[in-house]
Design goal:
Number of strands: 20
GO biological process, one term: pentose-phosphate shunt
EC number: 2.2.1.1
Distance between the termini: 86 Å
Oligomer: single chain
Strand order of the largest sheet: 10-9-11-12-14-13
Largest sheet: 6 strands, parallel
CATH architecture of the largest domain: 3-Layer(aba) Sandwich
Pfam families: Transket_pyr, Transketolase_C_1, Transketolase_N
Number of helices: 25
Protein name: Transketolase
Keywords: Calcium, Magnesium, Metal-binding, Thiamine pyrophosphate, Transferase
CATH superfamily of the largest domain: Thiamin diphosphate (ThDP)-binding fold, Pyr/PP domains
């Protein structure tokens, strides 16, 4: 290694350590230990271009150990992505471009928001799946327009988390040879040596998953790291796992190889000692030698040339395959929301009682006929979730053109993989499981909401209507859990029209994920349901009075119950309005005028009806209102018996309204 290259590697270490020291917060251990990996990969083996960070055929890099963000920011600065020295100086400060963990769509060049360890590993699998599917869709002999790698770097913590095992098991099954995992094996965790809790043979585990495994004994040997990366690329049948033996905090004499190097600043004395030990030529903080910048400019030019070559290839591809070029544009364009809104077939009414999970299945197939880039599946529950696109094959090692995905029983990894597919670009993805298992999805749904990814979650068997499977399978608190998340639309539709509205909202969304909460039991089409459901809440059956005596607010299967209770009360001379509220989140986005029109403030007699926990309904019923909701877990019995047992019948709803009205008098 030349002296310039040595200084270029150390530039990553020193900049990262200085960022953390200035912020008095951060994790210097990973950046200092992994700097040679980063330099070798980004400089000599990865196709990327800081002048065009969104180049479609770039190699993707995900830092799964997101606490090592200072290393990533150093790379983005040195490779010309637009991060300035001042940005580095503002590390972890309010409104800076260099937050504590990398944030997608906030910092140019960050491919994924990685906070929870292991999440980046699973999202990388999704990116690799997207690459293989799009390659199968578009590549022609001599025109490999989709041909790039997904690299992910993580450490011991990422491999301890179960999500990585779930995802890698699937990656190996699928033979995702364009996925290259680099394992920063420094044998240190926050509490000390990994031997206290992590002694398994990781290489054997990865081999069992179906990965090629490669070992690099010296994490400072760039040539050996480079040879390992090229060996990984040469295997065209398996994903690759490269273990690199590193030392956490490398270069700092007092901290190197210790747990204290992981998550605290080096300290000024130790920072200066590291500079001396690494023979860093600059004493001034955040000062990088000109020859180092020149080295990085030369390395960056490699990526510029790679993109220029691809642009020529793609232009020739478009000229020779104009129909494919048109399809490419369709895959990468937003959904035509106006055309879908006016599509009569999509909005066609269903004339018989049908479960909303089945209605959703019909809509998935209608959408597949309209949109070319649907790509999704279920966690081994497609027959129950109704998520299979009929007439389409399944994505597999020998058939990357398949549009349906078998995720296996891997809900957590599935939701992260969906994030990766969406982050890659070019595809609209959906995933499915039982609603109660949204507990397994939630951490990755949260990341999707933070990143603004329009992933669709098909969550069926939405309530005690699950029936005989009992309380372990009957969601009670999950609606409140998902509704509590910012930037997600949670739909619980009442019939065919509302289910269409939910899918319309999901598929036309650009920055918000959507949860479709769907029934196992049949729902009768409602006379008053309409596209007004797109506003989140609307009057499905009105009072004949200008000012109704009360308002029943319901969702899903309980909307019909509210209408039945309305009839009982009407016979008694009590004239109430029934509001269907399929999506609280979208209702909250409406104008105050519209919200007051649907829920007039002077109508204080309100009852909310929903077969879930009552948490969250207070804002709509006020201090005077009541709920007919679940206050306990469910039970094992036929669904009809359970709805009766827990008070979900028209008489109980009517009685709740009577009591509220009496209390107000």
């Amino acid at each position: 290694m030349s002296n310039v290259e040595k200084n270029s590697v150390n530039a990553i270490r020193i900049l990262a350590a200085e960022m953390i020291q200035k912020a008095k917060s951060g994790h210097p251990g990973l950046p200092m230990g992994c700097a040679p990996i980063a330099y070798e990969l980004w400089g000599k083996h990865m196709n990327h271009n800081g002048k065009n960070p969104k180049w479609a055929n770039r190699d993707r890099f995900i830092l799964s150990g997101g606490h090592g963000s200072a290393m990533l920011y150093s790379l983005l600065h040195l490779f010309g992505y637009g991060l300035t020295i001042d940005d580095l100086k503002n590390f972890r400060q309010l409104d800076s471009l260099t937050p504590g963990h990398p944030e997608y769509a906030h910092t140019i060049g960050v491919e994924a928001t990685t906070g929870p360890l292991g999440a980046g590993m699973a999202m990388a699998v999704g990116m690799a799946m997207a690459e293989r599917h799009l390659a199968a869709e578009f590549n022609k002999p001599g025109y490999e327009v989709v041909d790039h790698y997904t690299f992910v770097l993580g450490g011991d913590g990422c491999l301890m988390e179960g999500i990585s095992s779930e995802a890698f098991s699937l990656a190996g099954t699928l033979g995702l040879s364009k996925l290259i995992v680099i394992y920063d094996s420094n044998r240190i965790s926050i509490e000390g040596s990994t031997d206290i809790a992590f002694t398994e043979d990781v290489m054997k585990r990865m081999e069992a998953f179906g990965f090629q495994t490669i070992d690099v004994a010296d994490g400072t040997d760039c040539a050996a790291i480079g040879a390992a990366i090229e060996k990984a690329k040469a295997d065209t049948t398996r994903p690759s796992f490269i273990r690199v033996h590193t030392e956490i905090g490398y270069g700092c004499p007092a901290k190197q190889g210790t747990a204290s190097a992981h998550g605290e600043p080096l300290g000024e004395e130790n920072l200066q000692a590291a500079k001396e030990n690494l023979q860093w030529p600059e004493q001034e903080a955040f000062k990088v030698p000109d020859e180092v910048y020149a080295d990085y400019r030369e390395l960056a030019s490699r990526g510029e040339k790679a993109e220029a070559e691809w642009n020529k290839l793609f232009a020739a591809y478009c000229a020779n395959f104009p129909e494919e070029a048109k399809r490419w544009e369709e895959f990468h364009a937003p959904v035509d929301a106006e055309a879908l809104l006016n599509n009569k077939e999509f909005w066609a009414r269903n004339d018989k009682p049908t479960a909303s999970r089945a209605l959703s299945g019909n809509l998935i197939n209608k959408l597949n006929a309209i949109l070319p880039n649907m790509f999704g599946g279920s966690a081994d529950l497609a027959p129950s979730n109704k998520t299979e696109m009929k007439g389409e094959s399944f994505f597999a090692k020998d058939n990357y053109a398949g549009k349906n995905i078998h995720f296996g029983v891997r809900e957590l990894a599935m939701s992260a993989i969906a994030n990766g597919i969406t982050l890659h670009g070019g595809l609209r993805t959906f995933v499915g499981t039982f609603f109660v298992f949204s507990d397994y999805l939630k951490p990755m749904i949260r990341l999707a909401a933070i990143m603004g990814l329009p992933v669709t979650y098909v969550l069926t068997h939405d309530s005690i209507g699950v029936g005989e499977d009992g309380p372990t399978h009957e969601p009670i608190e999950q609606l409140a859990m998902l509704r509590s998340l910012p930037n997600i639309n949670v739909f619980r539709p009442a019939d065919d029209m509302e289910t269409a509205a939910a899918w319309y909202s999901a598929i036309t969304s650009t920055k918000t994920p959507t949860a479709l909460v769907l029934t196992r039991q049949n729902l009768t089409p409602l006379t008053g349901s309409s596209k007004e459901a797109l506003k989140g809440a609307y009057v499905v059956s009105d009072s004949s009075k200008e000012i109704p005596d009360g308002i029943i607010i319901a969702t899903g299967s309980e909307v019909a119950l509210g209408i039945e209770a309305q009839e009982i009360l009407k016979d008694e001379g009590v004239d109430v309005r029934v509001v269907s509220m399929p999506c609280m989140d979208i209702f909250e986005e409406q104008s105050q005028e519209y919200k007051d029109k649907i829920l007039p403030k002077n109508v204080r007699a309100r009852v909310a009806v929903e077969a879930g926990k009552d948490f969250g309904w207070g804002k709509y019923i006020g201090l005077d209102g009541a709920t007919v909701c679940m206050t306990s877990f469910g039970a094992s019995a036929p669904a009809a018996q359970l709805f009766e047992k827990f008070g979900f019948n028209k008489e109980n709803v009517a009685e709740a309204m009577r009591k509220v009205i009496a209390g107000l008098k």
